[in-house]
Design brief:
single chain, alpha/beta, Helicase, Ruva Protein, domain 3, 2 domains, 7-stranded mixed β-sheet, 12 helices, 51% helix
């Protein structure tokens, strides 16, 4: 996805929010905003938002000297969703279409996004998403591709959300490779977050090699790219991964909630809509 003009104030808002979590030193926070303001003037509209996000969060780390300001928040998010795990599993068990319910729960976990969202109510969102109609619903192609695939590449998004992804993985019935970020960026999941969520019990965990808040392929490792290019069925979670991969003509299924009007408009849906969208 390209960068839109409305993305620029959002970049600054995210930078301010993250900097305040990273440090209480107002001079450092002001320096972050000054330097990011200078950085943004050179950002082309053709670049994807995660490419810019990568530069922004590197700058925040450099100036605040805090490499993982969301660490404690991520841990608490995962603990919270783990406490809901038995009830979520029961919801799947009691449903008429277990796979579809697991997909809905996985999408519901996508509200745990501290880049796009400052506040969320996971329990209410799960209840809503279990009943809400999809704005884009490529479920039949998803099932066909699942049946024909020997294994799945599952590109994760946020910490905490991993627990909801685990529920979906448990219903897929195929070997899964689960992808996390190489280094901390916002509340995106890294290896330790996936471990805390129990992903290692249902899938192999690998890093994409990037520290961007999305799977920006030019910044990914050769090991990841080798797996990615050979994959015949890819699940991509969340807005950042959609922004980075939306131009790809690959067997990707995007699972997300449109939490941002810019992204909603780009996809052609309304803000708040839930999406199961095939890339091809």
């Amino acid at each position: 996805m390209k960068t839109y003009l409305d993305c620029f104030p959002c970049f600054l808002s995210q930078a301010l929010r993250a900097s305040r979590i990273a440090t209480s030193d107002e001079k450092r926070i002001k320096k972050v905003l000054d330097e990011i303001g200078m950085l943004l003037k050179d950002i082309p509209l053709e670049s994807s938002p995660p490419e810019t996000g990568r530069l922004i969060y590197r700058k925040i780390e450099e100036i605040t000297r805090n490499p993982d300001p969301y660490r404690a928040i991520k841990e608490e998010s995962t603990k919270k969703v783990l406490s809901l795990y038995p009830a979520l599993k029961n919801a799947v068990k009691m449903s008429e279409d277990k796979l579809l319910t697991a997909i809905r729960i996985s999408i519901a976990g996508n509200v745990i996004d501290l880049g796009a969202n400052r506040a969320f109510d996971l329990e209410n969102d799960i209840e809503d998403i279990l009943k809400r109609n999809f704005a884009i619903f490529d479920y039949e192609p998803f099932k066909v591709k699942l049946d024909r695939s020997d294994e799945i590449l599952f590109i994760g998004d946020n910490a905490g959300e991993c627990v909801c992804d685990r529920i979906l993985i448990e219903e897929l019935g195929k070997p899964v490779t689960y992808v996390v970020r190489e280094r901390p960026v916002i509340n995106d999941a890294v290896h330790e977050d996936a471990l805390q969520a129990g992903i290692h019990t249902v899938a192999r965990i690998i890093s994409s090699g990037t520290d961007a808040p999305g799977t920006v392929l030019d910044t990914c490792s050769s090991d990841f790219m080798d797996i990615y290019t050979k994959s015949q069925f890819i699940i991509s979670k969340g807005q950042g991964n959609f922004e980075a991969l939306s131009f790809e003509k690959r067997p990707i299924f995007f699972l997300l909630k449109a939490k941002c009007k810019v992204i909603a408009d780009d996809i052609g849906v309304s803000e708040g809509d839930i999406i199961l969208k095939s890339a091809i």
